[in-house]
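Intended use. Records like the one below are meant for learning the mapping from a protein sequence to its folded structure. Do not use them to infer anything beyond what is encoded.
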Amino acid sequence: MNETEKMRKRASNMALEAEAIGLEDPPKVDLVRWITPEEWASALRECLTNAGFPVGYTTDGGISSANIPGEQTPALELAMYVCMGEYAIDPRYSEELNTEQRGILYDYQTTYYVSCLKKLGIEVSKPPSREVFMATADGDGWMPQLELPRDKGPEANTACPVLPPSNVLYGS
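Structure written out for the chain above:
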């Protein structure tokens, strides 16, 4: 994906976000930099804090605006729109995984992820063979993260990332 395609995807995502929060005349937002999925919460939190909205982290690694008064919701939504535009997740991270990447995902989930869950006392179903996983990895396959008990989900999401680091899965 070249830079022009990435910027087109960013513009489309921003238009959807503006529509979702009811921004009829959204401001022009310059890209500060592309970020990885792992950077999303910290980049957004820092940007929102600098905009006057001191948000916190959730137990699953997201951000929480629970401490922001309700009457500030429209201003917070605008700040989030701006921050998400300034620090946009590189669109290459939302593309469908290729065969090599699905193999990396299988190896990661069947070794690191399942072992990490076991250390937390969480058992998941036995993974399929690599061949079956590769044939069904586009959404209908084995997804152990969907088997997490509700009461242990936040702890597991924090301790055991579902995906390998972006630089491993997507390259540098």
